[in-house]
Design a protein that fits this description.
Helix content is 37%, strand content 35%. By secondary structure, it is α/β, with parallel strands linked by helices. The protein has a single domain, classed as Trna Endonuclease, Chain: A, domain 1, CATH 3.40.1350. Strands 1-2-3-4-6-5 form a six-stranded mixed β-sheet.
């Protein structure tokens, strides 16, 4: 059931991203780290977004954050890219390897409260 909810959340986020942006991609680093959504605007990567139902488990949280950091490293334009981790958990900010990652509650993000 948990994976099914996660899939549904990814679909909801995708539909909202389609409403907000024109260019939406999936991204996989050379090292095999996957990022759910890469957003481009005017030929520039502007957002890297991960979606997970919950990041309460430290292993899951670290995996999702690591994927964003590795992708930002590979793209070499990290200061121009917003890193987001959307989940059903409480919103907060994480700083990893000099990157600021916004962990945002999906409902807040959908309602544009953040």
């Amino acid at each position: 059931m948990g994976r099914r909810i996660g899939d549904m959340l990814e679909n909801i986020v995708y539909l909202e991203l389609k409403r907000r942006f024109d260019e939406i991609y999936y991204f996989k680093t050379a090292q095999g780290y996957e990022v759910d959504f890469l957003i481009k605007e005017y030929e520039q990567v502007t957002h890297l977004i991960q979606v997970n139902q919950t990041i309460a488990d430290k292993k899951t949280k670290n995996r999702e954050l690591r994927s964003l950091v590795k992708a930002a490293d590979e793209l070499k334009r990290s200061n121009q890219i917003e890193l987001l981790l959307l989940s059903m958990d409480t919103s907060q900010e994480e700083i990893i390897d000099g990157y600021t990652i916004k962990v945002i509650n999906i409902l807040e993000w959908l309602l544009l409260l953040v």
